[in-house]
Amino acid sequence: xxxxxxxxxxxxxxxxxxxxxxxxxxxxxxxxxxxxxxxxxxxxxxxxxxxxxxxxxxxxxxxxxxxxxxxxxxxxxxxxxxxxxxxxxxxxxxxxxxxxxxxxxxxxxxxxxxxxxxxxxxxxxxxxxxxxxxxxxxxxxxxxxxxxxxxxxxxxxxxxxxxxx
Length: 165
Ligand SMILES: [Zn+2]
Fold this sequence. Notes:
Blueprint: H1 2-15, H2 19-25, H3 31-41, H4 48-53, H5 75-81, H6 83-96, H7 106-114, H8 119-140, H9 154-164
Helix pairs in contact: 1-3, 3-8, 5-6, 6-9, 7-8, 8-9
Bound molecules: zinc ion.
Zinc ion binds near residues 65, 67, 68, 77 and 82.
């Protein structure tokens, strides 16, 4: 079943006119991470906002981010703009020796992460971004209303993500 899902995802990714999907698919990141990123860029991950739109969550109060408690939990908020996620990304940029403003949209965030690098550096940085985004989602945010998976801190997520690359 997982193989069929991967094949279906590959066909969809490669048929897309947006070149970012080709770059995601040909990344050196694990296939489950590539599928996650594809869904993230298309705003198809199971954020609370999506669950509310699908009527899985019944009230709008339930869609507030479980980590910061300030704004609605959208896929973009989870991965790039929640203060927790921003701490993770600032850790990566600090590790890379770069100071920059962070885009609030995942696609722009990913493209900025690899901007200005040579081809080999871009391939590595692209995989690091994919795995970091997946790790933020997997380790720090509730899934399907089931509560936190691990509740790691920002520095622990950075280490967990780097172990995957
Ligand atoms: Zn938040």
